[in-house]
Design a protein that fits this description.
Blueprint lengths: L2 H7 L5 H13 L3 H17 L3 H17 L3 H17 L6 H11 L15 H35 L7 H14 L5 H10 L3 H12 L7 H15 L2 H17 L8 H13 L5 H10 L1 H4 L3 H15 L7 H11 L5
Helix pairs in contact: 2-3, 2-4, 3-4, 3-5, 4-5, 4-6, 5-7, 7-8, 8-9, 9-10, 9-11, 10-11, 10-12, 11-12, 11-16, 13-14
Organism: Zostera marina
Protein name: Golgi to ER traffic protein 4
Family: Belongs to the GET4 family.
Length: 328
């Protein structure tokens, strides 16, 4: 059937035919014009309940735009890809997650320039690089957060796919010009990946300011204790020690780290609530270094000893992300 005959009959061309035409336009540098065509064609297929074809077009478009560094266009098509998954009520499975990960794999990874000579041109380049990095992180985060919501609704994990949380954490850490280790830690914990979190924390220690390393470790351990329990918190500490030893680095030493070590030992004992409270009192100055720690310790007291506090565990975890500007 010719294209003209198909048009008169209101039919849709095979998706590969559409993809090839749009790819040629993108290769010619017509990024914005082609963007609108990707939206139009995918909407037509979706309206005809041809969700598989719409997904093919959007995956191709998002991946190609991202390969050309068109992050805004690519991220927008990537979010539309997830929208088709939702509208088509498509179940979360390995095949679809693999397609999501393939789109994610095309988001650029670009290191910020390290300028030794600071002049007006260098400052301008760094400022522009920071703006572009923020756009990359925002675009990728929007896509992955949408995918996480879809996976929660149509998959087996009520809070969303752990694999997608881990991808989100890794991208934010590698690309964000303003690292928020609290948010990154939460995403790794939701990604059920303490080993990767340990590796990332050790990497963070190489670039953080003095006094931030023990805060990052304590925060991650307390988050794990409040959500996952003792096993993964101990595993995280063990992995941290292994990673540091492999780099011939010492474990950070501070009263806060001392508190964390004693806390892990205390929680492993039976009937240890009095000792738990004694530790909180003794190390109060260290705990007060971050306001979040008191809330997390309340959540830990509730989880391990059944002592009720005003905020439930899920509410605290959700509030952490809301405070940091993220819903997932």
């Amino acid at each position: 059937m010719s294209t003209e005959t198909r048009r008169r009959r209101g039919g849709l061309p095979p998706p590969q035919e559409t993809i090839e035409k749009l790819e040629a336009a993108v290769n010619d540098g017509k990024f914005y014009e082609t963007q609108q065509m990707y939206k139009t064609f995918s909407a037509r297929y979706a309206a005809a309940h041809k969700y598989s074809e719409a997904l093919e077009i959007l995956q191709s478009g998002a991946s190609l735009q991202l390969k050309y560094g068109q992050v805004t266009c690519g991220a927008e098509l990537a979010v539309l890809f997830v929208g088709i998954l939702v509208n088509g009520k498509i179940l979360c499975n390995e095949e679809i997650l693999d397609r999501v990960e393939k789109i994610f794999g095309n988001f650029p990874h670009i290191s910020l320039p390290q300028q030794l000579v600071v002049d007006e041109d260098a400052i301008q380049k760094i400022s522009q690089s920071v703006i572009e990095a923020k756009l990359r992180v925002e675009g990728c985060s929007s896509f992955l957060k949408a995918a996480i919501k879809w996976s929660a609704e149509f998959g087996e994990h009520k809070n969303g796919s752990p694999e997608l949380y881990s991808l989100l954490a890794e991208y934010i850490y590698s690309e964000s010009p303003e690292l928020d280790m609290a948010k990154i830690s939460v995403y790794f914990i939701k990604g059920k990946n303490p080993g990767k979190l340990a590796f990332t924390l050790v990497s963070f220690m190489d670039k953080c300011y003095p006094g931030e390393d023990d805060l990052a470790i304590a925060r991650a351990v307390l988050l794990y204790l409040s959500q996952e329990g003792l096993k993964n918190a101990n595993y995280l500490m063990n992995e941290l020690r292994k990673n540091l030893e492999s780099k011939k680095l010492g474990f950070p030493q501070s009263e806060l780290i001392q508190f964390i070590v004693y806390l892990l030992q205390t929680l492993a004992k039976d009937n240890s609530l009095p000792l738990f409270r004694l530790l909180r009192k003794k190390y109060e100055p260290s705990i007060d270094r971050e306001a979040l720690f008191e809330e997390l310790l309340d959540a830990i007291e509730e989880k391990f000893y059944g002592v009720q506090h005003r905020s439930g565990l899920e509410m605290i975890f959700g509030d952490i992300l809301n405070i940091m500007g993220g819903e997932n």
